[in-house]
Amino acid sequence: MSPDVKDLINACKTVRLAAQQIFDENKLPYFPLFPHGWCGCVSRVLGAWLKYNFPDDVFYYTCGYYNNGSHAWIEYNGIILDITADQFDRCSEPIIVKAVETSTFHKDYVIENTHPCNINDVNYFEEGTIFRRVKEIAAYQRNYETTN
Predict the structure, then answer these.
(1) Most buried residue, 24, 40, 99, 121, by CB count within 10 Å?
(2) pLDDT(11) > 90
């Protein structure tokens, strides 16, 4: 079963919440102020989380450049999933889930790299730390939904 927009939004919210908690707990003290500079790491986590839950679908880690700066996000079937665009002054949306052609924020980026996401993208310390928290939050949410 492939994800619908609600599934994509929920995944984005869960991964962003996990990353924010990890930052607030100072688990990655060498990372800058969240969400600044977290785009690559959390995009790999988001891609791995989506792949974990929807193994038959293909999600793409995408990295682009604009004005001498880089940014990373996930793309799936013509939809951009970006959970750190608000690190930039020109974007106030903490979570972007919209069609590629309608995202004015992303249209100026020159894509340098795109590749399929893999569950093994969280084998690094930072990504693994966030991914474990994502799993904890998702388990809590499932338990809450079944008891209420």
Answers:
(1) 121
(2) yes
Q: Do residues 41 and 27 make contact, with C-beta atoms less than 8 angstroms apart?
A: no
Name the residue among 55, 147, 65, 52 with its Cα closest to residue 114. 65
The DSSP line for 48-116 is HHHHHH-TTS--EEEEEEETTEEEEEEEETTEEEES-GGGSTT---S-EEEEGGG-TTTTTPEEEEEEE
> Cβ contacts of residue 129 below 8 Å, gap of 6+?
22, 27, 28
Which helix (DSSP H) or strand (DSSP E) does residue 16 occupy? Answer: helix 5-24
Q: Are 83 and 12 in contact (CB under 8 A)?
A: yes
Phi, psi of 141 (to 5 degrees): -60, -40
- The overall pTM is greater than 0.90: yes
Give the dihedral of Cα atoms 102, 103, 106, 110; nearest 10 deg.
Answer: 0
Is residue 63 classed exposed, middle or buried when 0-12, 13-18 and 19+ CB atoms within 10 A define those classes? middle
Place of tokens 């309608």: 102
